Amino acid sequence: MKLILFDVDGTLMDSQHMICAAMELAYRGQGLACPPADAVRAIIGLSLTNAMQQLSAGADHPIEGLVAGYKEAFSIMRAAGEWKAPLFPGARVAIESLRRRDDVVLGVATGKSRRGVAAMIETHALDGVFITIQTADTAPSKPHPGMVLDAMRETGIGPENTVVIGDTVFDMQMAKSAGAAALGVAWGYHPVADLHAAGALSVLEDFSALDPALAALWPAANVNVDAGHA
């Protein structure tokens, strides 16, 4: 069996606009100026507390208040029907193709909360797709390997048969620390060169490149991913 762990924000789903909007509201609620969008995109993938700490490095900011404000802003946007984070082109077709295989287990490893993952699954009708769901609620923030280790433990699949697919250096570092393979994606929030430097075996230009990347990683597995777009 092969375990394929997807990051969510920046890999499966383009959520940067909602994240930046919630961050703006969180900082404004504390009477602070929000860091620029580039800085916010750079911390996407970290757990919320770690992200706020990194954004506020060197400043005496109320981290707990910022975290609470961010969660409240996201809840308000969801309640108002403003959940507008689409899947990236090709994501659904690739996921459904892999799901049909009997030798592949799919999972997610994300800095989102369990509640955030549940909202993503409901919004995009992905119920039952991911066998293991690892979030910042129950594991240390990326790049700590805890999420990958927990996923491998839960599924009984070893690191030699596990790959993490993500858009940030945090994903690549997490995978390497867990002994798993790492594949980067070029459409996310960290530069391609940084993904290579962090240990990505390759960086996908779009989801059509996933099939050959997995085939190169596991030649005997004959993994076949539909290269179509959805």
Quick description:
The chain contains ten helices and six strands. It has 230 residues and is an alpha/beta fold.
Name a few traits of the molecule.
Rossmann fold, globular, 230 residues, six-stranded parallel beta sheet, 10 helices
What would you note in describing this structure?
This protein is α/β, with parallel strands linked by helices. The chain folds into two domains: 2-14 and 86-221, Rossmann fold; 16-79. The protein contains ten helices and six strands; from the N terminus they run E-H-H-H-H-H-E-H-E-H-E-H-E-H-E-H. The protein has helices spanning 16-29, 37-43, 48-55, 63-79, 91-99, 114-123, 146-155, 169-178, 192-197, 210-217, and strands at 2-6, 104-109, 132-134, 162-166, 181-185, 202-204. Helix 9 (192-197) links the parallel strand 5 and strand 6 (202-204). Helix 1 (16-29) packs across helix 4 and helix 3 (48-55) packs across helix 4 (63-79).
* N- and C-termini, Cα separation: 26 Å
**What structural class do helix, strand and pairing data support?**
alpha/beta
**CATH 2nd-level architecture of the largest domain:** 3-Layer(aba) Sandwich
Side-by-side strand order of the widest sheet: 3-2-1-4-5-6
CATH fourth-tier homologous superfamily of the largest domain: HAD superfamily/HAD-like
Give a quick account of the main beta sheet: strands, pairing sense, barrel closure. Answer: 6 strands, parallel
DSSP E strands, number: 6
Question: Approximately how much beta-strand content do the residues carry?
Answer: 5-15%
